[in-house]
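Please describe what follows:
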Amino acid sequence: MFSLTVDDGLRLTLAEERHAEPITELMARNRERLARWQPWAMYRPTVESTRSYIRGGLSRFAEGRELYLMIEHEGVPVGACGMRRDPQTLIADVGYWLDAAAEGKGLVTRSVTALTGAAFTVYGMRRVEIRTMVANHRARAVAERCGYEFEGVLRRAMRWADRNEDVALYGAVERHG
């Protein structure tokens, strides 16, 4: 099992099928709040749909293309942080969400910082991106705290229900010497 220790009490753990129930509970509890920003949150999660997503994530992990990780604080799942990687272009993108009860503790900022570091040092990525809706100020603040640079707005780049939303693009590049 892949895991990344962020610091004392905070760890990112590869989601496995056995985690489907706690992840589904977290998603259901936070669905209304997350549905403003996450297209997947518009749909009611089930343990089976979560298990299916995890299976796909494990397959993409085996192919070297994805990490779908649970954020565990003090041994308790409190959210997710993931990275999709393109081994050809050496570009990755990072996404994240957190349980409302765990907000305000720096958990996402520390998790994204650790995952970004691993993208460069462990996986050899040359660029890592974060994309979020322009109006999602909290997600944008995480990107900025993690050292990502705002690169611009991708107009109508995210399909959302019956409309397309503008997306803020943040990037971090490998630093030499």
In short: The chain has a mean pLDDT of 94.
